[in-house]
Structures are given as C-alpha cells and as structure tokens.
Amino acid sequence: MITLYRAHLLWSDSPTGLREVKDGGLLVADDGVIIARGVFDELAVLHSSAVIRDLRPHWILPGLIDLHVHLPQYESVAMDGLELLPWLEAYIFPAEARFADAAVAQRAARRFFGDLLSLGTTTAVVYSTIHQEATDLAFQEAESCGIRAAIGKVMMDRNAPESLREDTETSLKQSEELIQRWHGKAHGRLSYALAPRFAPMCSPELMRGVGQLSEKHEAYIQTHLSENVEELAWVQNLFPDCANYADVYRRHGMLNRRTLLGHGIHLDDSERAMILDAGASIVHCPSSNAFLQSGVMPLRRWLEEGLSIGLGTDVAGGPSLSMWDEMAMACTVSKLRFALLGEANATVNPAEAFHLATLGAAKALSQSHRIGSLEGGMDADFIVVDPRRTDPAERLEDAADRVLSRLIYRADPRMVKATFVRGNQCFVQAS
Ligand code: GUN
Ligand code: ZN
Q1: What is the pTM of this model?
Q2: Whose C-alpha lies nearest to ligand 1, atom 9?
Q3: Nearest 5°: phi and psi at 279?
C-alpha cells in the first residue's frame, strides 16, 4: 500500500536553506521509504491508487535528531546547584547504579523512548549505564516502540565509584556482544554507539579497545570532551604526555568519522584541527552547558571552521528532553555570546538550529542519505505538528521562518500530533 500524506511540508536542505511546499504531498511506500515529495495535486494525479491521508491544517517536518542523551539520567533531571564533577557524584552515579535492577531499567527505557517520540524526536544517540542487561533492555524497548536509536553501554574502568567500575576486558567483551546482537538491526534502525564515558574514567587500554571495536564493526563512538575546566585539569594530570584533551582520544584511536564528541566548549586550535582531520563530529549541548555552568561553546565560530556539528539535550545535564528547547537554547546562547562578549556574527537563527537538529545531525551520523530531510529515497522519519498551538493569533499563513521560530521558541507539548519512523506511526497524540 502506498500512502500520500497531504500537509504543509517544511524541511532544511542547507544551513540557511529552509524549504516548504504549502499544499504538499509526501508519498510513502509500504516499506517506509519516501517515494516522492511535491505538490499534492500533482502527486495525487500521478499516483491515483495511493491512499490519501489528509493532515491539513497540520505541517509535516523531518523528525528531530538528538545526538547526545543519557537514558538512565531522565529521572534525575533538574537537580540544580552543582558543576559537572560533584553533580555526577551526588546525583548521577547513584541513579545509574539503580540500573543493575532489570525491572528499573525496563520501566525507565519504556518511558524515555515514549517521551522522546511524543516530543518529535525520531532518532536518538543514547548512553545507557555500564550494565549489559539494562543496555540490552534499552535496545529491546527501542525496537518495540519503533524509534531510531544508537545506544551504548557506558564504559568505565577507573576512577568511577566501586558499584559502577568494571574491568577492562569485561567492558570490551560485553560491548562487543551487544554490537553483535544489535548493530544494524531492525532494517538499520538500531545501531551501536560505544560509550567510553570520558577520559578521566577510562584507561588507555580501554580507549584503544574502543577504537579497535569501532573500526572492526563500523560502530559509532560517543564520549564527552572539554566540557568543564576542572575536568580539563584532571585530564591533563592523568595524561601528561598528550598535547591536550582531544589528543588523548586521538592517540588512543578513538577519533574517526563515526565519533560523536559531546560538548567541546573549551577546545583550542589544534584540537579542532584534529577533530576536523579525523572527520569526527561535535555535539553541541547548550542547555546542559548552561545548567551545569560549564560555559558557552562558540557555535558560530566552530561552524565557520567547517566542523561537523549536531545538537544534544544531554539529559540530565540538560533539564529538558525536548529538541525544540535545545534548538531555542542554541539560538539564545549565541545571542548572549554576541551581547556579552561582543563576538561578531555569533548569533544563530532558528532555521540554522533546525538544520543542526535534522540534516546536520544526519550528516554527523553519516546517514544523510537516509534521514534528516524529506527526499525521495529516504526513510519516512517525519513529524506532524500543529503550529497554531504556538501562536496566540493562530496564524498559518505566515512566512515559514516565522512559523518555525514560534515552534522553536514557544514549543508546546501538544503541538506534536504524530511521529513516524520508517513510515510507521510510533506516536499519536490522544485527542
Ligand atoms: N562527563 C562524564 N559523564 C558525564 C555525564 O553523564 N554528563 C555530562 N554532562 N558530562 C559528563
Ligand atoms: Zn552527556
């Protein structure tokens, strides 16, 4: 069965290239792949046997992509008052230790993925805990709810609390078993993202093993880099022979095209050159960076240098699971950089933030042939939104950039009406 969705279509095909079709059609095949996108009337004539789903006056947008989020931390959001390292000790490690219990892990995963879908996130790159069973359950829940996800078991073999410390060999062995079970499964909807937490809690052997597993299985690597100044000093102490923080990962074989580096606030010139050279990506997490008082990454500068960048909520570092809030924060903090530091051209607008949360993120995942936009040949990962929910005047005839600006700055939990991944409706709002 072929389905023709009728709605106002909005997507991004370049950082400044916001595109729309006002009375649009999105033609989706039975296997969940987009056949064509265009003007509704034209597609309806060409494909007269398609089943029509008229979604007007709602809009269709590509699904949002969260490149950095911690599943086990969802219930610990909004714990205010501490910076990164004491916050991890006080709130996060105790929360993660509870995932030794499979029942806790399963309940949390179900709620987490359900909430992501209800917010319009169709792809998430997720840290689990060190627990193999909890990570397996996270994959099972992602498989059954239909979301697209890259997930990884956190790896920590030193300087972590006793209850969360593993030996190097076990950490690598369990990660490889999970790769074999899940990487590329569900028609490529699920993938594995090795998750060495960050350099201070990983031995050189562990990091080298991670690099080798990534190469061997073409798995992603997700980790944290250059987030907090105390963390930087710790890394320098632990790795006196490395030139800087990024060099720690480079020397241990962890920088490649499939590496996603969370934060990257305080990077120097040579670190950015290393990241660019390796083809790795930075995940900008502005809400978390504000909440944990970590700093403000110069997003505009890093973009102009050609770095590959996406956005992440970094729950529970960031207090919101919503990529709408994250896009708003990316714009807001860029304005603050301009206002407070006088940094020329620092501001980032909603269309650019939307690009980072869709096609830009898809590029960081090397999946821009498949997700991030509404092109023929891509998987049908899209969301149905009601822009009237964000507008006191309920205008639908405004310019697309204004409508998008309201969706981002004034996101309303009820504005996402439905969420589709690979053509499958994974969430629908109760009426
Ligand atoms: N650095 C190491 N672990 C974490 C974490 O869980 N959250 C954040 N924001 N930074 C980290
Ligand atoms: Zn994080």
Answers
A1: 0.99
A2: 317
A3: 75, 20
